[in-house]
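Morning!

This is the sequence you dropped in the shared folder:
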Amino acid sequence: MKMLDYALGLIETRGLIGAIEAADAATKAAEVKLVGKEKIRGGFVTIKVVGDVAAVKAAVDAGAAAAARVGELISTHVIPRPIGELEDLIYTKQEMPPIPPFSQGESVVQTSKPAEEVKPVRKRGRKPKSITTEVAPQVEITQQAPAEISFEDLEKITDENEYLKALESMSVHQLRRYARKVEGLSIFGRQISIANKEKLISELMNAKFPK
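The structure's back. Tokens below.
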């Protein structure tokens, strides 16, 4: 069973002010990373931080005390080394690669509105005329999510340009999962969890095609 190499800290408050105060105090108290917040009905807000177990515990304690001073603290919790399947819940805001210009894989959906009829203005001595104006059709661009490439398929690639292209088509979460399976990287553990897309691609390219 795969375990993540960092701890998850949760601070739940009622009201946004207490949540903001908790996040500020938590990140100042210890070396942790604020990875998101969850808002649900009833004004409940949950702040999420990750880092080493000791740092997360200190951050959660400081955040809870700050939230209780200015608002209503509901609960706190620290999960040391959560199971890997929770990563998609921890990072709720999906990091996606930038949308390129029109290319293969994009579809254009065109919707048009019926012509709007403008009511005639009555002028003395003239018959009213009906005037119609055409509304330009709206164009929506739908971007297909990148398909996930298997670890085995990536390992079979021997061409450097093809390997780079495959990595660039993957999301940050896909790259992180893949990087944890690759040997020879100069980063590991929590460094992989917080690395951006450019850093992950650079590490993977250097590991497979060392200069």
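Headline: The two ends are 35 Å apart (CA to CA).

More detail when I'm at my desk.
O.
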